[in-house]
Amino acid sequence: MTQKFIVFNITDRCNLNCSYCYANNKNCNSMKLDDMEKAIKDAYKDNTIIDIIFMGGEPLLEIDKIKALYGFIEDNGYFFNPIVGKGIAQINIVTNGTLLTDEIFGWLKDKEEYVTCRLSYDGNKEAQNKHRCNSYDLIPLQRYLTEYSKASINIVIMEDNIPTLADDIINLHKIKSDVNIHSMRAQGVTYSKDCLKEYNRQLKKLYDYYVENIEYYPCSLFTGDYFLSLKFDLKDDCVCKESNLFYRCDGTSKHCNYFLLHDIDVDTKELKDLVKMPNKCEDCILKYNCCYCYAVNHAFTGDPTIPSTSNCEFAMLEAYYNSKYILEKCKYYEDNNSDVLKEFFINAKELAYKVSCYLEDRLNEFVT
User: Fold this and answer.
1) What DSSP assignment string belongs to 294-353?
2) Which domains can be identified in the chain, with CATH numbers?
C-alpha cells in the first residue's frame, strides 16, 4: 500500500508569535471548507492510505471547520477501509496547547480512533516563555498527558533548553511513560560551539535513561528511523514527494510546506540532481541524511541546492547516540527473543554498528 500526506495550513491566525515559527505571514486568512473537501475527494481517488495534518497558525482557532471536515469524511465513507485498502487513516492536529478547553478535550477523546492532537512544548518554563510568548502556564500539560491516551509532544531544541533537555524529556515520561515525543533542532538556527559539549551531556543522559528503561518508546532522537533512512539515497526519499501536498489558506498547494509558506517557486522534483555536496561531506556516512532536505538547505544558505555544514557536529552527536541505542535495543530483543519491532531493529543493527564506529573518534575531537 502507498501512503500520502495532506497538510492543511488551515489558518494564518495564531494567538502566539513564537520566535522560531516558520509561518512568517500571520494574518486573518483561513482555508475554506470547500477547498479542503475538494482536496480530500481528489486524494481519495488514488488507491492509497492518507494522513491529514492540520497546521497553521493555530489550528484550534478553526476547530469548528476541523469538526465539520471530520463529519464530511465520516459521512462519505472516506476513513480507511482495510477491505479496499485505502482511505484516511489518521487526522493530526498540531497545536500550541493554549486553547485546549474542556469542550475540545471531550471531542478529541471521543474521536481518538482517527484523531491525534500533538502539542508543541519546549520543556523548561524559561525557554517556553521566551520563545512561546509566556505560554507555559496556559498549557494544561498534566491533564493532556494523563487524560489523553494519544498524547504526543513536539520539542524544538534551542540553546535555551539544551541544558535541561534530558530532564524535560524524562519528566514527560514520568507523567506518561508511553508518550510520543518528537524532538528536533530549530530550522535555520546555527548553534554555538559552546553548547556542543552540553548537548553531548544531555544526549548521554537520555541514552542512559532509555537503556535503563529499554521497554519505553524513546523520543525521536533515538527511534532508529534515522538509520533506515541512511540505507537509501534520500534524493529519492525526501518528504517533498509528488504524492504529498501542503495547502495554504488560499487553496494553493506545493509538495513542500517550507517553500509554500515562504512563496519560493521551485520544482522540488528537479532539485535532486542539482545538490552541491560540500567537499567535507563527500566521504561522510551521514551525507544523504544531512544534504537532501531542500527546505533546510534554503533556510541556512538561501539556496535549496547548497547544504550548510554549520551544525555538522550536532548531527553527528545525534547519529552516534542513536546508533548506540539501536545496538542496545537489538541486544534486548535478542536476549528476550521478542518479535515486537525486532525485524526493524535487526535490519538497522549492521548500519548502527558501522555509524557508531565511524563517529566515535570524530566526536572525541570536539566533545572531550
Assistant:
1) HHHHHHHHS-TTS---TTHHHHHHHHHHHHHHHHHHHHHHHHHT--TTHHHHHHHHHHHH
2) 2-186 (3.20.20.70)
